[in-house]
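Dear Dr. H.,

I hope your travels went smoothly. While you were away I took the liberty of generating a structure for the chain from your last submission, since the lab meeting agenda had it listed for discussion. I wanted you to have the full record in hand beforehand rather than looking at slides cold. The sequence, exactly as received, is reproduced here:
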Amino acid sequence: MSKQPTTRPFRFYPAYCFQSSPTYDAWVKLTAADFHVLQLEREFQGQNIYFYLNHPIRFVRVVGVVVAIDDINLRYSALTVDDGSGATVELKIVRTSLEEQGSKVPTSATTISNVNVISQSGVFEITIDHRSLDIGTVVKAKGTISEFRGVKQLELKRVQIVSSTDDEAQAWAETAAFKSDVLSIPWRVTSAQHSEIKARIKADKKRAKEYDKRIRDYEVKKFEYEAKKAAHERQKESKREARRRKEEMIMNAGSLI
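The corresponding predicted structure, in token form, is as follows:
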């Protein structure tokens, strides 16, 4: 199994730098072995951000052969995939209840649009794009990182069946290239890049402040307009009431003649 270096000839950058990372907003292509060596760092506890070297990672893509299909309970099912790296990855499928589906059809849908779980009368089946999933099927899976009893899982968000050996080979080549070109090299933010990041943050804050000011100004003008409109309506109503009373007085005076 892959291991991260025990020594760290790199630094961890502040979270405000992460948007400039090549991995932070990407589906990071990992082998199963590398997936399990992702680490949490104390400075970023509770943010569900893992690291390979100093690369911040939230989203992961793996490609492998399905070696196990498990019906865990009414809320979860799981697939285990093996990519030949010396480790496997469990893909957690979150199921939706019949009440959430708004249907009484005995098919349990999932939070993934093209994945269904059918569990009824002794039948258990998982389909992807309406194709039944079997042991030996190759899948390309994308998800977020979670842990269960200290073991990392990939909570499935997107998945597709890899239909040809050429597509499978290409996917594994992409994973190898991404590790070689990106992950194996510590992420570095130059002084110039750091200045650009700070300037962008400052500009974003300025725009946000200006936007908030426009919203406040709009609310003040809206309040003033509504107040003037209400005052105008009260004035019109007062005039109508005065006219009505005057007319009543005239009619009453006429009736006394």
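Two observations you may find useful: The radius of gyration is 31 Å. The mean pLDDT is 87.

With kind regards,
E. W.
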